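> example.struct
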């Protein structure tokens, strides 16, 4: 699972040119240099002997570095959740995530899908079928350290242009975060968003195949990244040689099915052919497998991370992780995805009324009081997540 990419050798070439120039000059002016040096009232220090075993410039530039990546699924904020988070006129969602925050924080790159638009309270909050969520939802995810966010979903258009602009204004204030899939202009849409961690450069692109029948504002297609093969190809080619890692978030497929449909597989194959490193799938609201297409990691569906949906399969979500390893040898960069792993999370609703204390638990914190039969559920849903062509490490729970 390795991808090799040429690293610019500009520094080496410049050094070679400088050495040639110095050598040429020294031939003609060596005696002058000697004369000047000997006539200075300074002690000339003896040159150190050449160490033939000393590392060359190229060898000094050889190195390895890693970054850890984790992805979780949908933040699907139903009214029951935002009513639950309201206290004394203030929305605070942090308490929902206290059990998973320590896990999320340990990773370098942290992705989630903002399923519902963060248009904010000024537009009026709403739930299914047209969602609008408090921006304090984003605050809770930022508090956990998430730095990769997908904004292209089948609910992005729910509150029209104003909802998207409010969302973009919010995300524009978040430093160190790539929020992809919705943009305030075409210029912004085609401007690569490149960041770096541990010497590894990366970017995130995001697309949706679905709009729920809602129309994108005329002449403003940049507000919503609707999937189109040619557009995707151009976007990837624009950034592929500028970064070590390209991630693409895809909102695709059919709801409530644990097996990827034909559309998902065809798009995944296409993205892999364009050199994408990690494909991150959402929309089905249930878990689908983690797989590899040659060197491309494909997470077909992460399911829900947090939601007010009903049904155990919609309350158990996937946390998928991998270590990104960058190796530079003689100017050639190799990117390897190592140690892919899967974990499960569970959204618990403690009561049937508002104020019912929604809380998210990693399976490592579960017991039969919180989720009766959780071990059996673990086996069932982990089998789905790891039903790919390559071995995915499980985080076991006893």
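> example.seq
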């Amino acid at each position: 699972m390795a991808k090799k990419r040429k690293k610019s050798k500009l520094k080496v070439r410049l050094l070679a040119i400088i050495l040639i120039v110095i050598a040429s000059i020294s031939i003609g002016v060596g005696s002058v240099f000697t004369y000047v040096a000997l006539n200075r009232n300074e002690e000339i220090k003896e040159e150190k002997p050449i160490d033939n075993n000393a590392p060359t410039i190229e060898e000094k530039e050889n190195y390895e570095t890693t970054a850890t990546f984790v992805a979780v699924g949908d933040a699907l904020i139903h009214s029951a959740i935002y009513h639950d988070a309201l206290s004394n006129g203030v929305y605070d969602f942090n308490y929902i995530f206290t059990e998973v925050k320590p896990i999320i924080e340990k990773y370098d790159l942290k992705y989630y899908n903002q399923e519902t638009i963060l248009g904010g309270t000024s537009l009026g909050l709403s739930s299914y079928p047209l969602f609008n969520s408090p921006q304090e939802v984003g605050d809770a995810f930022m508090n956990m350290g998430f730095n990769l966010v997908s904004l292209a979903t089948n609910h992005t258009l729910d509150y029209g242009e104003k909802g998207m602009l409010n969302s973009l204004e919010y995300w524009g204030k978040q430093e160190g975060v790539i929020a992809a899939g919705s943009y305030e202009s075409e210029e912004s849409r085609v401007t690569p968003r490149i960041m770096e961690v541990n010497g590894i450069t990366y970017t995130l692109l995001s697309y949706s195949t679905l709009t729920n029948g809602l129309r994108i504002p005329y002449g403003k297609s940049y507000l919503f990244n609707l999937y189109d093969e040619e557009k995707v190809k151009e976007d990837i080619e624009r950034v592929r040689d500028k970064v070590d890692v390209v991630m693409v978030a895809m909102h695709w497929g059919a709801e409530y099915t644990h097996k990827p449909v034909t559309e998902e597989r065809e798009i995944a194959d296409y993205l892999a052919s364009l050199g994408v490193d990690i494909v991150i799938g959402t929309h089905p609201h249930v878990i689908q497998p983690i797989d590899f297409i040659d060197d491309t990691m494909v997470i077909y569906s992460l399911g829900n991370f947090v939601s007010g949906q009903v049904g155990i399969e919609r309350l158990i979500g996937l946390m998928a992780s991998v270590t990104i390893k960058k190796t530079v040898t003689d100017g050639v960069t190799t990117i390897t995805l190592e140690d892919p792993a899967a974990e499960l999370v569970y959204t618990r609703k403690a009561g049937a009324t508002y104020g019912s204390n929604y809380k998210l638990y990693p399976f490592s914190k579960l017991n039969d009081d919180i989720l009766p039969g959780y071990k059996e559920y673990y086996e069932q849903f982990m089998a789905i997540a790891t039903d790919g062509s390559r071995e995915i490490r499980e985080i076991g729970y006893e």
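> remarks
The chain is about 25% helix and 25% strand.
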